[in-house]
């Protein structure tokens, strides 16, 4: 993975920069190389680089003070939540200051009447729901990493989760933010209903991967908890039929909260590990619906009728908490299970649901050609696929073949009308594939937005855009000139 | 001017030497808009792709909203954000205005259903963003930025939406005796329970109105629970399903119409300060009020904003802070460096 050359003049001024930061925010600066190493990568651990320094501010004012210093010194800045990005979004460069939000975890306001919670953005996703749980509310976006990942990172990546078929992703549940721009100015975006008077700046900030500003506070929509939820599992002897069943359910106007899909390689690996008791089949669906018990019965009856038309080899409806947990067990441990038996690379492409059979067949061919196994698990309701490419990290050449196959699969996603990433983000991982999905003018329009928020391209600038596309802007930094 | 293709439209913009007003149906113009030479999008029409089984619709910007709604209805679907069907309105105008109706309390605004755009910038570049899949975090989400930009950043040529199934049963319920202030408390009580309310509003003569949608048995169960929850506000009776259509602002001759966005908790104080409330929607977050022509309402401090939507010039209270104003102005400068685009409706 190519990264820009670090700015040697910044590195040469390391001590002066640290001293200035320390004067502004005492006890919050880490610059001992042994300690900065903990920040050298995120969950895309294949790429690492320790930063110049790390700062862990406790307030918006401190973030502003730090950014003013970095701006004045021409120091690149990388915002960091919990560092669970799978795309290298929070990986630093050697000349960068990492601003970590981990100390900013306060709940600032809860209003159930206004259906909102305001938090500092270092707070974890799950603990946001935790803060309103006793009041009968929850925060809907639920990435699988929700125990660890921070709201700031969720906003950076516009994260989603299994339940977003019904409730949408982060951008649909974000009402407002307090954000510090690279020059240290503080701005509030959004408003009641997420709506400001002018342009929808909040909408473009969400998913901008820490490139437009550092989000320090967020106002999030909370929803009353449903009375109950229940999953069912349907098994089929072909992926194609499972795909057709998904289409029919959606076509019938039923909107479950989740429709998850697993194929045979994934089921087999999961069974060995988690022993959830899944049937021996080519493909299975896990479908969850919500409501009071009679409402759930009503929805499940409709889904059953549709599923039966596709001659499933098994139809398993949960009748208890324990059965529900068992149905979800395999799906929830799929990634861990794969990790136990193999090294793998997790892709995150999105396709139109109609292209599902074609794409699965093509992936099987490509996998055979490359001589690498691929297991599929994904959010079938919205076409967000997570093909897992299995490889052997100790075998020379395997990683390269794996990366090449991954890129080919993502190209296939774009070719059938989908996109390179549905929830993990571009980061450094998919940066150089952006040209597959976007024409130069499309990228230029996006970079214009960055020009406005961060004219000197100091914030997380080596991410998202192919390095050659962003080169002139990054090199235009006054201090680098 | 009424180009028939995106390329022709881009050409007109590139060659323009004076400002243009981008006009779809011209049904959602705000004060001051539509004054320059009009560039109409109405010849760019037609549905490009509709996959009901994937809940995806792609449509050209000049397509009449009525055509879009009819095509969706034929498949048992709709635009979930429920834009009001003004005669002549185009889908591009709906997006440019981020027009969203009562169901916004449940499924979000137009911008939430918008998953992709094609547009022509003020210097004639054809740009695409997003696409035709529901989940997409590839690059910046310019679709959101375009929604509600009122033709100031670019001319929308094609839009992709997530569609919503029409529920088999829809019930409008009302608490007819409530005035606007009392209605806020009732709407709040309804929206804070597990009833999946798909509309929560107040109208003079109708009182508080609530909508439940879904499968038959499910609606009747939720209705019972909701009646019990709202007992302190009176008896929940069958309401007029047409009432939802009345929530959209109409031009009044006896004053200026203002649109106020606030937190529901702030609505009672705002309502008390306003001379004449015309309608309340989104559980109290949207207030339409009539204010004597040419005057500004004296509003208590609140967290949203108020916009005058009739009269000669636009007025927004409070004025945006300097940083936001700079970001807005510079974005406009970037997408339309020659200041050719003068707003739409
Ligand atoms: C096991 C596992 C499962 C996962 N499952 C899912 C899933 O189901 N759905 C999903 O969407 N993702 C998933 N992810 C990816 C990841 O958890 C999400 O992208 C998450 O939102 C990252 O949050 P974070 O706090 O760790 O952010 P980080 O990794 O620290 O940062 C992510 C990006 O946001 C920026 N950023 C962070 N904080 C701020 C801030 N305050 N202001 C501005 N920018 C900021 C960073 O610069 C970076 O670009 C998973 C990851 C793992 C490891």
UniProtKB/TrEMBL annotation, chain A:
Gene Ontology molecular function, alphabetical: FAD binding; oxidoreductase activity
Keyword Oxidoreductase: yes
Keywords, alphabetical: FAD, Flavoprotein, Oxidoreductase
Cofactor: FAD
Pfam families: FAD-oxidase_C, FAD_binding_4
Record domain FAD-binding PCMH-type: where: 47-225
Record field: transmembrane: none
Protein name as catalogued: FAD-binding oxidoreductase
Automatic annotation (TrEMBL), chain B:
Cell membrane found in the keyword field: no
Gene3D superfamilies in UniProt: 3.30.465.10
Flavoprotein recorded as keyword: yes
GO MF term set: FAD binding
InterPro entries in alphabetical order: FAD-bd_PCMH (IPR016166), FAD-bd_PCMH-like_sf (IPR036318), FAD-bd_PCMH_sub2 (IPR016169), Oxid_FAD_bind_N (IPR006094)
Protein origin, superkingdom: Bacteria
UniProt organism field: Paracoccus tegillarcae
Lineage: Bacteria, Pseudomonadati, Pseudomonadota, Alphaproteobacteria, Rhodobacterales
PROSITE patterns: FAD_PCMH
UniProt keyword list: FAD, Flavoprotein
Domain FAD-binding PCMH-type residue range list: 1-166
Protein name: 2-hydroxy-acid oxidase
């Amino acid at each position: 993975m190519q990264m820009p050359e670090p700015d040697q003049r910044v590195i040469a001024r390391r001590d002066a920069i640290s001293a200035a930061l320390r004067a502004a925010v005492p006890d919050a600066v880490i610059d001992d190389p042994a300690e900065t190493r903990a920040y050298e990568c995120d969950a895309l651990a294949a790429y690492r680089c320790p930063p110049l320094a790390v700062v862990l501010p406790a307030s918006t004012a401190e973030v502003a003070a730090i950014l003013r210093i970095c701006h004045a010194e021409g120091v690149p800045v990388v915002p960091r939540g919990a560092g669970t990005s799978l795309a290298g979004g929070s990986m630093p460069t050697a000349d960068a200051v990492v601003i970590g939000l981990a100390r900013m975890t306060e709940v600032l306001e809860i209003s159930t009447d206004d259906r909102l919670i305001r938090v500092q953005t270092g707070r974890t996703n799950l603990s946001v729901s935790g803060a309103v749980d006793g009041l009968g509310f929850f925060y809907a976006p639920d990435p699988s990493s929700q125990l660890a990942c921070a709201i700031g990172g969720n906003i950076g990546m516009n994260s989603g989760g299994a339940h977003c078929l019904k409730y949408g992703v982060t951008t649909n549940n974000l009402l407002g933010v307090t954000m510090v721009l690279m020059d240290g100015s503080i701005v509030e975006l959004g408003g009641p209903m997420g709506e400001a008077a002018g342009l929808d700046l909040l909408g473009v900030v969400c998913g901008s991967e820490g490139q437009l500003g550092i989000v320090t506070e967020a106002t999030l929509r909370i929803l009353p908890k449903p009375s109950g939820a229940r999953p069912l599992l349907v098994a089929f002897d072909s992926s194609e039929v499972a795909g057709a069943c998904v289409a029919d359910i959606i076509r019938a106007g039923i909107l479950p909260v989740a429709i998850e899909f697993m194929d045979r390689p994934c089921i087999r690996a999961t069974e060995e590990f988690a022993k959830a008791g899944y049937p021996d089949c080519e493909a299975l669906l896990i479908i969850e619906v919500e409501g009071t018990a009679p409402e759930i019965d009503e929805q499940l009856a409709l889904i059953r009728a549709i599923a039966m038309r596709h001659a499933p080899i098994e139809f398993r409806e949960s009748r208890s908490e324990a059965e529900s947990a068992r149905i979800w067990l395999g799906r929830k441990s799929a990634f861990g299970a794969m990790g136990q038996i193999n090294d793998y690379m997790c892709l995150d492409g999105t396709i139109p649901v109609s292209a599902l059979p074609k794409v699965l067949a093509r992936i099987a061919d490509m996998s055979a050609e490359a001589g690498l196994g691929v297991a599929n698990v994904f959010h079938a309701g919205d076409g967000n696929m997570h093909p897992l490419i299995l490889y052997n990290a100790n075998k020379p050449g395997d990683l390269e073949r794996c990366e090449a196959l991954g890129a080919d699969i993502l190209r296939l996603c774009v070719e059938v009308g989908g996109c390179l990433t549905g929830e993990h983000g571009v980061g450094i991982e998919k940066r150089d594939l952006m040209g597959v999905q976007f024409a130069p003018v499309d990228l230029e329009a996006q970079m214009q937005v960055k020009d406005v928020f961060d004219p000197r391209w100091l914030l997380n600038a080596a991410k998202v855009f192919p390095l050659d596309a962003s080169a002139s802007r990054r090199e235009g930094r006054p201090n680098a000139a | 001017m009424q180009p028939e293709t995106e390329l022709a439209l881009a050409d007109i913009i590139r060659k323009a030497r004076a400002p243009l007003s981008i006009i779809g149906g011209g049904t959602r113009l705000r004060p001051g808009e539509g004054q320059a030479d009009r560039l109409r999008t109405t010849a760019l029409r037609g549905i490009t792709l509709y996959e009901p089984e994937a809940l995806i619709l792609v449509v050209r910007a000049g397509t009449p909203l009525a055509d879009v709604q009819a095509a969706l209805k034929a498949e048992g679907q709709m635009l979930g954000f429920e834009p009001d069907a003004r005669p002549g309105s185009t889908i591009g105008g709906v997006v440019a205005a981020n027009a969203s109706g009562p169901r916004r309390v449940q499924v979000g605004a137009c911008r939430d259903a918008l998953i992709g755009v094609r547009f022509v910038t003020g210097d004639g570049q054809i740009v695409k963003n997003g696409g035709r899949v529901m989940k997409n975090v590839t690059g910046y989400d310019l679709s959101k930025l375009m929604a509600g930009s009122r033709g100031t950043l670019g001319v929308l040529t094609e839009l992709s939406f997530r569609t919503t199934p029409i529920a088999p049963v829809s019930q409008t319920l009302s608490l007819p005796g409530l005035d606007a202030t009392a209605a806020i408390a009732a709407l709040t009580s309804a929206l804070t329970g597990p009833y999946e309310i798909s509309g929560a509003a107040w109208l003079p003569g109708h009182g508080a109105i609530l909508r439940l949608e879904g499968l038959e048995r499910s609606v009747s169960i939720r209705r019972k629970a909701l009646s019990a929850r709202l007992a302190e506000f009176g008896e929940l009776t069958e309401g007029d399903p047409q009432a939802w259509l009345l929530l959209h602002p109409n031009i009044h001759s006896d004053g200026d119409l203002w649109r106020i966005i606030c937190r529901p908790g702030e609505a009672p104080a705002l309502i008390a300060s306003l001379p004449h409330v015309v309608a309340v929607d989104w559980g109290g977050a949207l207030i339409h009020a009539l204010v004597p022509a040419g005057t500004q309402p004296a509003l208590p401090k609140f967290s949203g904003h108020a916009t005058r939507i009739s009269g000669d010039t636009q007025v927004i209270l409070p004025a945006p802070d300097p940083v936001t104003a700079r970001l807005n102005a510079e974005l406009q400068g970037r997408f339309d460096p020659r200041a050719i685009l003068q707003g739409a409706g």
